[in-house]
């Protein structure tokens, strides 16, 4: 099934031939279901923290920061193309707008989106008016300014770099929202908020450029120092693509096409992170400032609970070292 060239390509990616064959078998036979026993419930897999417990856990976290390195781990390689699926359809098939009702509905409320002002600027550079494009239903031209290099290029950019929320001081992208969050619950005793973003290779320079522009602003605003790092999803975690006959899909140059794996593949990146407390949160799982307080509370409460569990484990280990023949409690 595989040529010498294929095997060499696998080796470059760090994938074995047997792994590729196993992936293809999954496409043929399907993926096995998990053997679930029952649903988790309160006091049986789910901890229900009272308001007093939340407060106590937060206090424990805040008083045990010294000596513990905190890292905010943010999967940020997700592309925004799926968000704009209907917009792409309408842009390429503008003569049949009835096929894309959701896109039409969104465009009718375009001025409510955080990127509206920037989109308007992009249109005005060419001597046009966004309002006139909307009124004339010139969807192809309007969406070209939104989705392509002609304007905002949102069809290419990842979700982490799209303007999500609007404020009096100006709009923010999700990466900025994570910088804000980190300043409130991810700052260590040394005053440093450490963030790690997993990004796609083609987008890494964009994130770095935004970091250079944004971090000085938020450092001054929140009296924090940022330590931002990046990694890319490892090629060895990619999944082979197949055709309708479950055969490896080949590109025009006869090379086999691989696609990045899901978020589970980022366990490799997570394992490389050095930290005592690691907060994990996806890049687009962010809310505006007026809704953030609950996030701050529960992130710290969970971290406090984590530190208490760790302290108990350490105590058990110390007890075992001091008593090599402990009694087993039934």
Notes on the protein architecture:
- The protein is 43% helix and 10% strand.
- It is of the alpha/beta class and 330 residues long.
- It is globular and about 80 Å long.
- It has helices spanning 4-13, 17-29, 51-63, 85-92, 101-108, 116-124, 130-135, 139-147, 174-185, 204-222, 267-271, 292-322; strands spanning 41-42, 45-46, 70-75, 192-199, 225-232, 239-240, 258-259, 277-280.
- The longest helix is centred in the last third of the chain and has 31 residues, at 292-322.
- The protein is built from twelve helices and eight strands.
- 24% of the residues are buried.
- Helix 10 (204-222) links the parallel strand 4 (192-199) and strand 5.
Unreliable stretches: none
Whole-Å distance between the termini?
A: 56 Å
| Beta fraction | 5-15%
Number of strands: 8
Rg from C-alpha positions?
25 Å
Overall 3D form: globular
Structural class: alpha/beta
**Strand count, sense and closure of the main sheet?**
4 strands, parallel
Give the mean pLDDT.
Answer: 93
The proportion of residues forming helix, as a percent range, comes to 40-55%
Order of helices and strands: HHEEHEHHHHHHEHEEEHEH
Query: Helical region count?
Result: 12
Give the neighbour order of strands across the main sheet: 5-4-3-8
């Amino acid at each position: 099934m595989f040529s010498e060239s294929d095997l060499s390509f696998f080796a470059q990616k760090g994938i074995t031939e047997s792994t590729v064959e196993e992936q293809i078998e999954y496409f043929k036979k399907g993926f096995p279901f998990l053997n679930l026993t029952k649903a988790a419930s309160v006091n049986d897999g789910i901890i229900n923290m009272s308001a007093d417990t939340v407060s106590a856990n937060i206090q424990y976290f805040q008083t045990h920061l010294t000596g513990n390195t905190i890292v905010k781990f943010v999967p940020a390689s997700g592309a925004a193309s799926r968000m704009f699926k209907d917009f792409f359809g309408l842009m390429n098939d503008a003569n049949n707008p009835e096929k894309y009702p959701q896109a039409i509905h969104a465009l009718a409320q375009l001025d409510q989106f955080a990127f509206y002002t920037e989109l308007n600027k992009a249109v005005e550079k060419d001597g046009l008016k966004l309002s006139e494009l909307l009124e004339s239903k010139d969807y192809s031209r309007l969406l070209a300014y939104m989705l392509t290099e002609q304007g905002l290029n949102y069809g290419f950019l990842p979700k982490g770099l799209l303007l999500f929320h609007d404020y009096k001081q100006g709009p923010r992208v999700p990466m900025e929202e994570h910088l804000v969050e980190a300043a409130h619950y991810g700052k260590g005793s040394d005053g440093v908020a450490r963030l790690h973003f997993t990004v796609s290779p083609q987008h890494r320079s964009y994130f770095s450029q935004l970091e250079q522009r944004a971090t000085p602003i938020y450092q001054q605003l929140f009296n924090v120092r940022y330590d931002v790092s990046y990694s890319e999803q490892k090629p060895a975690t990619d999944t082979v693509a197949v055709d309708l006959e479950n055969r490896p899909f080949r590109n025009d140059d006869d090379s086999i096409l691989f696609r990045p794996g899901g978020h589970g593949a980022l366990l490799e990146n997570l394992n490389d992170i050095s930290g005592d407390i690691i907060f994990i949160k996806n890049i687009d799982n962010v809310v505006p400032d007026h809704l953030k307080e609950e996030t701050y509370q529960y992130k710290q409460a969970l971290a406090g609970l984590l530190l208490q569990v760790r302290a108990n484990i350490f105590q058990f280990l110390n007890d075992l070292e001091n008593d090599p023949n402990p009694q087993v409690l039934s």
